[in-house]
Amino acid sequence: MKNFTYTRKMVLVMVSAVLSLLMITTAHAGKIVLSNDEWNLSDYGFTVNPINDPVTYASNVAGWFTGGGAGRFLAYSGNFGLTGNSLASAMTSAGNTWIVSMADPFTLATLLGYDGVFLAGNPVDNHVLIDYVIAGGNVYLAGGTGYGGAAAEAAQWNTFLNAFGLGFGSFYNGVGGNISISSPHPIFANVDHLYQNNGNDTLDIIASDPRAQVLLSLNGHGLYAVYDSGPVAAPEPATFLLIGAGLAGAGFLRKMIKMIKK
After folding, report:
1. What is the model's pTM?
2. Alpha carbon distance 108, 219 (integer Å)
3. Backbone CA torsion sign across 208, 214, 219, 223
4. 5 burial type by CB count under 10 A (0-12 exposed, 13-18 middle, 19+ buried)
5. What b/e readout covers 200-228, taking b as 16+ CB neighbours within 10 angstroms?
6. Are 158 and 188 contacting, i.e. CB atoms less than 8 angstroms apart?
């Protein structure tokens, strides 16, 4: 009986180790774009920008989320910054599927049907967002909407953002106008200016973590930030061998258990 108990424990340990190795390859696979304000992608933001930089910006964000190529995106918001015809045209003209709707329940199952979700104003379950990014999903989040005031707006998103080293400031920053863009990040390729009107500062709360960073600031106010987990690590050949050996060993030990029972 003692041998049976020991053998069973060994099987559980080996199976647990194999599952842990598999989980390591999928953790933190998604991306986040954090905008301090929602006016940049509103119809007015498109109109007031003389060289249509918002078109390029929207296309760049979509391409960064998908790694290149067209994607399927959901704007889960009733905020004017994400529901305008100009943004819809920019996204679909780039070959993307663009759906503006809050009809479906805000669940992980819903979000996994999309390459990215765009949010502004309307609060959602932060824990669902965390799970979505960990599962490989991408999130665009705009602040400065006035929903509940600056402090409440920051608080409604910071559980999600803090999990990935980002945050919203609890005061509106007073930054407005066509703001000059100077950043080498891919989301700003060929983008010179974007309009905005009084947003929540974007924050990098863990300076030592390179995955989260503020890309653009003005007078000490963070305007745009990103979280990029980087490419998902593929197991090395030796890891595959270890996984295979673990599974084979688990099978062998399972046979031993049956023999001991007899």
Report:
1. 0.79
2. 38
3. negative
4. exposed
5. bbbbbeeeeeebbbbbbeeeebbbbbbbb
6. no
Token couple for 11: 């099987």
Token pair for residue 206?
């863990």
Biggest alpha carbon–alpha carbon distance for the chain: 82
Average pLDDT over residues 214-229: 97
For the CA atoms of 198, 133, 78, 48, the dihedral, rounded to the nearest 10 degrees, stands at 40
- State how far the Cα of 80 lies from the Cα of 101, in Å rounded to an integer: 13
What does the alpha-carbon distance between residue 34 and residue 167 come to, in Å, rounded to a whole number? 9
5-61 per-position pLDDT tens digit:
444 444 444 434 443 444 434 444 799 999 999 999 999 999 998 788 999 999 999
Q: Could you tell me the two tokens for 79?
A: 């905020």
Burial of 196 (0-12, 13-18, 19+ CB in 10 A): buried
Phi, psi of 66 (to 5 degrees): -85, -15
Q: State the residue for tokens 């490989």.
A: 136
